[in-house]
Specification:
The chain has a single domain, classed as SH3 type barrels (Roll). 0% of the residues lie in helices and 40% in strands. With 63 residues, the chain is an all-beta fold.
Length: 63
């Protein structure tokens, strides 16, 4: 499932995110959502979240 809708993403969900510095390469990082940072219901590039590890990125896939 893609991470464009904030309704699909819950705190505690396991996701793959792309960090700002990895946007060109598309390298993803896997983790568990701690905070949802995007306020809008949808975002074309993915909802921005903070993982439990402290990494901030846009959700590309919900696992």
């Amino acid at each position: 499932m893609f991470g464009n809708n904030s309704a699909d993403i819950k705190v505690g969900a396991r996701v793959k995110v792309v960090q700002k510095q990895d946007q060109r390469t598309g390298t993803t990082t896997e983790g568990v959502v701690r905070d949802i940072l995007t306020k809008s219901a949808t975002h074309p590039h993915g909802i921005k979240v903070r993982l439990e590890s402290g990494i901030v990125g846009r959700v590309k896939e919900i696992l």
